[in-house]
Amino acid sequence: MNRYLERKADGPISLQLRDAFSAFLSAFEQFKSANNERLQQIEKRFSADTVTTEKVDRINASLGEQKRVMDDMILTLRRPEIGRGVHGAIGDTKSLQHKAAWELYARKGDASELSDFERKSLSVQSDPDGGYMVPDEIESTIDRVLSQSSPIRSIASVRQVSSSSFKKPITTTGAISGWVGETGNRPETTAPSLSSLEFPTMELYAMPAATQSLLDDSQINVEEWLAEEVQTVFAEQEGAAFINGDGINKPRGFLTYNVVADAGHQWGDIGYIASGAAGAFASANPSDQLIDLIYAPKQGYRANARWVMNRSVEGDLRKFKDADGNYIWQPGIAAGQPASLMGYPVTEAEDMPDLAADSLSIAFGDFNRGYLVVDRVGIRVLRDPFTSKPYVLFYTTKRVGGGVQNFEAIKLMKFAAS
Asked: Which tens digits make up the pLDDT trace of 197-212?
């Protein structure tokens, strides 16, 4: 834990988080009690009382909102302090010079020192028309917050590159091997089939605006202001693209690949398990299909597997029990820990679809091995004081790519009869 977190560990937000988590656990106990009553009514009368059903839905919705509030608190606690390194150390001389030159450019539009600094550093990635590279501190701060608030980025593999795309060689079939005696012939084996996947990086931008009076205020930390303005926008755009992006001027989302029934799965396809009903879970033993989804990936991918779904679908799953009468969804053991479903952690991603006919609303697998995020090194800022006077625009860009890198590692649930 860095000093910034240590300083805030006993602060107001931490105390609020502690209280919020206690209230969340208490609400979950109330939910289980109300849902048990609903299930007993269904068992006795084949339908639940309307009042009881409404009570369960109300508590369930409240649980979702309480979880959202706690997630916001946790993100605030984890946000790093700009101006200090990971361990609280002040940056080196070169970093401080870059920081001072960039601040002069941001506040006054004077790029002379920044141009000199980048020329001495042999930087070829910045120019007056395309903007200037932000100091490493700002870039790393934005990237760290993105890794915490962008759900798919937080569980995927992330690779930094200096070029516009990344090509990854892959083996679609393994090399053939065999057993031989000590003096037996060694016949030539079949070579593995090799291919490659390409992950181009696309430009992601944000354009926060500030008044010149704000920039002139020495009490305002311009770097912190810019980071806070762009990090949420970047995280939202990334989160949507990594799930539903079509690959045109944006990363390709894992839901946009060819999806087939898992029994007919081949490399390049993502396999699915049917839920048993159109737009819903099966009416009888609905958790059986979830078990099938768990065992759809090969054993090597299950050790670090997790669920991905939105809060609405997660709320539906809270009502399910296993054959022994235990709830299959359980809250995290502490604030900041993910909930679990059948023993596997749950990642909430609001860009996952709600339940609907043929929707792909639940994903399961090892996303670290299955999905790759590619970041081109460097975040650029172009200061524009002319377009929207009296506001100064900061056209901020970073290049990001993404796509499935292992089609065996991720499986989906399709809400269909078959």
From this structure: 899 999 999 999 999 8
* 102: CB partners within 8 A, 6+ apart: 114, 132, 134, 135, 223
Q: What percent of the chain has pLDDT over 90?
A: 43
CA distance 80 to 86: 8
Cα 381 from Cα 197, distance rounded (Å): 30
The token pair at 51 is 């009042």
With CA atoms as reference, report the closest residue to 335 among 44, 77, 38: 77
65 token code pair: 């909102």
402, 245 Cβ separation under 8 angstroms? yes
Return the exposure string of 316-327: e unless at least 16 CB atoms fall within 10 Å of the residue's CB, then b: bbbbbeeeeeeb
Residue length of the chain: 418
Between 317 and 21, the higher pLDDT residue: 317
Residue with tokens 């105390």: 15
* C-alpha count within 13 angstroms, C-beta hemisphere, residue 400: 27
Peptide bond into 390 cis (omega under 30): yes
3-state secondary structure string, 99-123? HHHHHHHHHHCCCHHHHHHHHHCCC
User: What are the angstrom distances between the C-alpha of 345 and each of 76, 349, 359?
Assistant: 22, 13, 22
> Distance between CA 81 and CA 52 in Å, rounded?
47
What is the rounded distance in angstroms from the CA atom of residue 340 to the CA atom of residue 62? 18
| In the chain, where the domains are located | 3-78, 134-170+194-310+349-418
Decide: helix, strand or coil at residue 177: coil
Q: Phi, psi (5° rounding) for residue 74?
A: -65, -40
> Would you say residue 257 has pLDDT above 90?
yes
Structure tokens at 127: 């120019």
Q: Tell me which of 169 and 374 has the higher pLDDT.
A: 374
pLDDT, residue 104, reads 87
The pTM for the full model equals: 0.81
What single DSSP character describes residue 250?
Answer: S
Q: Each residue of 311-354: pLDDT tens digit?
A: 999 999 999 998 888 999 999 887 778 899 999 999 999 999 99
Q: How far apart are CA 279 and CA 265, in angstroms?
A: 22
- Measured CA to CA, the distance from residue 315 to residue 356 in angstroms comes to 15
- Residue 192 C-beta-side C-alpha neighbours within 13 Å: 11
Question: CB-based contacts of 68: which residues, under 8 Å, 6+ apart?
Answer: 311
CATH number attached to the domain at 134-170+194-310+349-418: 3.30.2400.10
